[in-house]
């Protein structure tokens, strides 16, 4: 009895502390990190940036298919390049085709960076791909002014601050998946992913578009884990599906076997061919 009371008391204290911490988190906004805005929509009509040739470009014409968005700065000595390199790795391994199934858009959040830096980064990243040939038109690298950068980073919840050296930035790494209307469909945070993460997130961003049968099956077998920020294989769904298929197949087998022993009139075949009986009668 005492042990039970102690356990309940400890659980109560843990819940109290957790609630207090959660309340503290709600009071203090995130300064550095990702504040996910799933389901919110970017105002594509007002957002414009500078392309690799120094020309102003509106975002809306680029959203004729799902968009894989990354926010980096091109001189970053830390996680920006590893993030883009990991993206090229999973692009190579994924069976979706950039330019056909989705577009990629990388935007610098440093207003001091130039189109020349964007062009060099684009050339380097495209050269990293070993199995796919991606057109520069399908993976754009933009720069922008402070107003548009602030608008898009606030819209997607990308929080960063200047570093102490006043040159670099303290920031997180994430890949965002946007639908054709600019709606935020998925975040994949960190710098390590797998091809299933990319493929299923693009499928999420394609909600409302026609999917192939195998894409529907994959969608059932995987689900998004918000804590791990990745897709995980749902073994219980696979077992349930296999059990269902087995039950249907076994039921069909029983029906077939039971029906094969009857004539259309309902009589069994054995009734038409009675077995010979030896009664011991004298011949």
Report on this model:
Residues 1-27, 208-216 and 275-283 have low confidence and may be disordered. The protein is α+β, with helices and mostly antiparallel strands and 283 residues long. It has a 5-stranded mixed beta sheet, with helices on both faces. It has a two-stranded antiparallel sheet with strand order 1-7. The longest helix is centred in the first third of the chain and has 26 residues, at 2-27. The chain has helices spanning 2-27, 80-93, 115-128, 146-156, 195-205, 213-221, 235-260, 269-272, and strands at 33-34, 48-50, 56-58, 67-72, 103-108, 139-142, 158-159, 161-162, 169-170, 174-178, 184-189, 222-225, 230-233. Helices cover 41% and strands 17% of the residues.
Task: Describe how the helices and strands are arranged.
Blueprint (H helix, E strand, L loop, with lengths): L1 H26 L5 E2 L13 E3 L5 E3 L8 E6 L7 H14 L9 E6 L6 H14 L10 E4 L3 H11 L1 E2 L1 E2 L6 E2 L3 E5 L5 E6 L5 H11 L7 H9 E4 L4 E4 L1 H26 L8 H4 L11
Parallel strand pairs: 4-5, 5-6
Antiparallel strand pairs: 1-7, 2-3, 4-10, 8-9, 10-11, 12-13
